[in-house]
């Protein structure tokens, strides 16, 4: 059975790794030459992680798994064919794993910001930090990426670090208990936290707020949200809030599946989080279901582990501490042991593909 995997990030690459060897013939459609571990971008920004620790080349991985790598962007689906920039890839089943893009919500002056949503953007941000040695850094958004970036930069730089959050607390998608614990840890590191603060414009040397006030800055980093990729936006598939709506088998329709950030996964009233933990589980489950299809066996339903009402995460708060979160419960105070566990998990994941 021919399977086209669109996107070679955590979800797409892990699906191929789990399903091979086996009855499936994979074509991976991915313009990049490497697999990248997005969870380690904040550490790379702060100079804690090395480039080789967060990337793995696709060529040897594809050769090892017998996968055809089409190094092009996927443009659209036409029946059972993926139309790429130069190629057309026929399939029996397709898996959409294109991740997400940065969402700027129409804010003015976003060209004056840095992003750590892709490796190239993170490299650009790191070069700026190394070359310009900024003294005041504003991080807009206090999700996992914003909190981890602020923690690491506060340790690695002699600079004033600010987190700016539009909602009433940091990590607004987590429990109030988790938010309070993380906010305390950030404040202890000297991070300045501004909540209930709306950004309306970003200038080269300052951030303008909705109440008419402003703050000078030397560097602005945007981490305040994501949106579906253009490929997903253009697809004629069922959607929810722009994301591909899938059923309990992670199937959008018939022979097309969607996993990771590209998918809206809501099962029995629970909405899956857009995290690496869930993307990895989507990949493994879909790999197993595709093998079942190829062998003429019935598919199995997916069970969400980390949902918006029951978060599961390891949150890095710098080189010396991290916290574990399961639902409303934080696993212990921030400790070096939890940080070491998170770092080992992240770095071990990318080693699977080397």
Protein model, in words:
This protein folds into 2 domains: 2-31 and 71-101 and 227-294, FAD/NAD(P)-binding domain; 104-224, FAD/NAD(P)-binding domain (3-Layer(bba) Sandwich), CATH 3.50.50. It has 9 helices and 29 strands. It has helices spanning 10-19, 41-45, 58-65, 119-132, 144-156, 176-188, 230-234, 276-294, 336-351; strands at residues 2-6, 25-29, 34-36, 55-57, 68-70, 74-78, 81-84, 88-90, 93-96, 100-102, 114-115, 136-140, 160-164, 192-194, 199-202, 206-209, 214-216, 219-222, 226-228, 239-240, 243-245, 251-253, 256-258, 263-264, 266-267, 270-271, 312-316, 322-326, 329-335. The strands form 9 sheets. The protein has a 6-stranded mixed beta sheet with strand order 5-2-1-9-23-22, covered by helices on one side. A 5-stranded parallel beta sheet has the order 11-18-12-13-14. The chain is globular, with a radius of gyration of 20 Å.
Outline:
By secondary structure, the chain is α/β, with parallel strands linked by helices. 29% of the residues lie in helices and 30% in strands.
What descriptors fit this protein?
354 residues; alpha/beta; FAD/NAD(P)-binding domain; 2 domains; six-stranded mixed beta sheet; five-stranded parallel beta sheet; 9 helices; 29 strands
Q: What is the fold's blueprint, element by element?
A:
Layout: E1 2-6, H1 10-19, E2 25-29, E3 34-36, H2 41-45, E4 55-57, H3 58-65, E5 68-70, E6 74-78, E7 81-84, E8 88-90, E9 93-96, E10 100-102, E11 114-115, H4 119-132, E12 136-140, H5 144-156, E13 160-164, H6 176-188, E14 192-194, E15 199-202, E16 206-209, E17 214-216, E18 219-222, E19 226-228, H7 230-234, E20 239-240, E21 243-245, E22 251-253, E23 256-258, E24 263-264, E25 266-267, E26 270-271, H8 276-294, E27 312-316, E28 322-326, E29 329-335, H9 336-351
Parallel strand pairs: 1-2, 1-9, 2-5, 9-23, 11-18, 12-13, 12-18, 13-14, 21-24
Antiparallel strand pairs: 3-4, 6-7, 7-8, 10-19, 15-16, 16-17, 20-21, 22-23, 25-26, 27-28, 28-29
Helix pairs in contact: 1-8
């Amino acid at each position: 059975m021919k399977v086209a995997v669109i996107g070679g990030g955590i979800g797409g690459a892990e699906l191929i790794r789990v399903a091979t060897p086996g009855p499936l013939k994979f074509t991976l459609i991915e313009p990049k030459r490497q697999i990248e571990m997005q969870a380690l971008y904040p550490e790379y920004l702060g100079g804690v992680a090395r480039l080789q620790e967060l990337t793995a080349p696709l060529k040897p991985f594809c050769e090892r798994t017998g996968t055809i790598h089409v190094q092009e962007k996927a443009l659209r689906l036409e029946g059972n064919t993926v139309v790429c920039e130069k190629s057309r890839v026929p399939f029996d089943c397709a898996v959409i794993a294109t991740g997400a893009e940065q969402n700027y919500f129409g804010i003015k002056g976003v060209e004056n910001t840095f992003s750590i949503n892709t490796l190239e953007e993170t490299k650009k941000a790191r070069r700026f930090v190394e070359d310009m040695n900024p003294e005041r850094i504003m991080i807009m958004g206090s999700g996992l990426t914003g909190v981890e970036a602020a923690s690491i930069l506060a340790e690695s730089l002699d600079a004033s670090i600010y987190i700016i959050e539009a909602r009433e607390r940091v990590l607004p998608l987590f429990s109030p208990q988790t938010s309070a614990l993380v906010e305390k840890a950030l404040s202890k590191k000297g991070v300045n936290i501004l909540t209930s603060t709306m950004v309306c414009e970003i200038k080269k040397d300052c951030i303008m707020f909705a109440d008419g006030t402003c703050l000078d800055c030397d560097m602005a980093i945007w981490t305040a949200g994501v949106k579906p990729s253009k490929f997903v936006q253009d697809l004629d598939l069922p959607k929810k809030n722009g994301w591909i709506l899938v059923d309990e088998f992670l199937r959008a329709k018939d022979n097309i599946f969607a996993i990771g950030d590209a998918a809206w996964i809501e099962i029995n009233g629970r909405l899956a989080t857009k995290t690496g933990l869930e993307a990895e589980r989507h990949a493994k489950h879909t790999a197993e279901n595709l093998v079942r299809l190829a062998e003429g066996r019935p598919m199995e339903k997916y069970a969400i582990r980390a949902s918006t009402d029951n978060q599961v995460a390891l949150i890095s708060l710098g080189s010396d501490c991290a916290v574990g979160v399961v639902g409303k419960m934080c696993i212990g105070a921030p400790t070096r042991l939890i940080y070491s566990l998170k770092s080992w998990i992240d770095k071990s994941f990318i080693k699977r593909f080397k």
